[in-house]
């Protein structure tokens, strides 16, 4: 299809099918966490083993996303989506009827191998189907899909697990996956350009070891600490593999992942801002449930409800932000969004042991509103500077960085919280002993540990405030950009700038 004709009349029906497929995959990603204790009891497995249902899923995603640039260039969007959706459907069926824990793990891994391709593929189709001046609106709708699934996921799974068997979570997803696959089979057309490129096996192995080891190392660090060989060993292996991978890609004429796109200044700046914002964003998503459930002793279902308005607002704001981006550009939106994020994150650092439920809900919702003005405009502005031939590499790089920075941010912030908690606990016990009021009863010990944890959480929110402030300063350097208009110019510019 001719690009001008495509831009005049984007294939909305086809994009709707891709959206629905991505929504089902993202929803599935957030459903299982609440059900882990039930699964542990049914299959009689330890926490370290059951954790592989989420860690394994994330690892397969982390390995596949960097390779998505190759797949998107090599195969048509129709064949790629049908393959990804088929794998996801097969994996869901495996998990829904799993007779043993091994089958359940296998199902999750197969699901992940399909889901890992969804986001980069959908983003690439959007960048191809819409002209630059309408990309903000299009990416805003894409953001609605990404945000709505995590908004619904935890609350829905909490309700399902309370009333039904955990397998129901997969049985809910399965018919939707099958329907999406049937529609895709009849309605999907090819619009993304393809090239006859060959996969470089050594690059694929290096990428899998590098990104996989880093994700595993940092994800495990939050739970096991940094001094375990399993943690620092995998991080070191990951760093070494990634250094070799990057050097190799820079020397190759047709790399698996094009690192020379960082010669485009706005894309490079958007990547840095996204990494910093992701690290700060995860603090709220992880620390708020810990605070709500452990210190305020609110049930998991009500904790999910507390975070629901923020997630819904973020989803609703996504298309609005997209339209505002098309009109005003990324800098003003990011500046407002990050100012709101800095202020609300600081207010989270002032939480007390009896802060009200609705006060926490209001703060969290406003923080999510701030975040909704940042991620999509910053990402889209960076991608807008890239020529079309570089779009698969840009989307793969952004999605990979979000996964890695999320894992690193989580691990570092959990470590900061634990260290502060230990120091605060020791200090409080010392003060109590000095005043002759050493905690002797279980209630007194529990109160002391809750005070220490509260100190750890508020201190970590303060650190997160500084991280968000760094992103705010960086956002001031953003400029509005557009790539050249014609395909020949795009390809030529990309070639000359990456030689």
TrEMBL record:
An annotated GO cellular component: plasma membrane
Localization annotation: Cell membrane
SUPFAM superfamilies referenced in this protein's UniProt entry, alphabetically: MFS general substrate transporter (SSF103473)
Keyword Membrane: yes
Keyword Cell membrane among UniProt keywords: yes
Record InterPro entries: EmrB-like, MFS, MFS_dom, MFS_trans_sf
TM region(s), chain numbering: 12-32, 52-72, 79-98, 110-130, 137-156, 168-188, 200-219, 231-247, 267-292, 298-316, 328-348, 360-379, 400-417, 457-478
Molecular function, one GO term: transmembrane transporter activity
Keywords carried by this UniProt record: Cell membrane, Membrane, Transmembrane, Transmembrane helix, Transport
Pfam family, one: MFS_1
Domain Major facilitator superfamily (MFS) profile: 14-483
Membrane topology: Multi-pass membrane protein
Family per similarity comment: Belongs to the major facilitator superfamily. EmrB family.
Matching NCBIfam families: efflux_EmrB
Protein name (record): DHA2 family efflux MFS transporter permease subunit
Lineage: Bacteria, Bacillati, Bacillota, Bacilli, Bacillales
